[in-house]
Amino acid sequence: MPYKTLVDPDLTLRDLTLEDLMAQWPATIPVFLRHKMLCVGCLVTPFHTLQDACAEYRLDLVGFVVELEAAIKNSEYPDRSTQDDVHR
Predict the structure, then answer these.
(1) 50 near 65, Cβ under 8 Å?
(2) What is the pLDDT of residue 15?
(3) In the chain, which ranges are continuous DSSP H helix?
(4) Global pTM?
């Protein structure tokens, strides 16, 4: 994976899809919901990036990334994915 680390992700990677982002860092999901974004569960999520979503919802990309990073760093288990439990 091209991500820096689970705790310190590079959310601005152009090829990071929303599906990958939410699967790897589930603590970001409430941020999307707080902004009333329909990205969670959307059929386009495997193809859209943060840039796409912010353009669609007219959100400031830099500010949104700051919120996502804060959610990841403040989550109870920032270095675990929901996928970790599946493979145990």
Answers:
(1) yes
(2) 81
(3) 18-24, 29-34, 50-57, 61-73
(4) 0.74
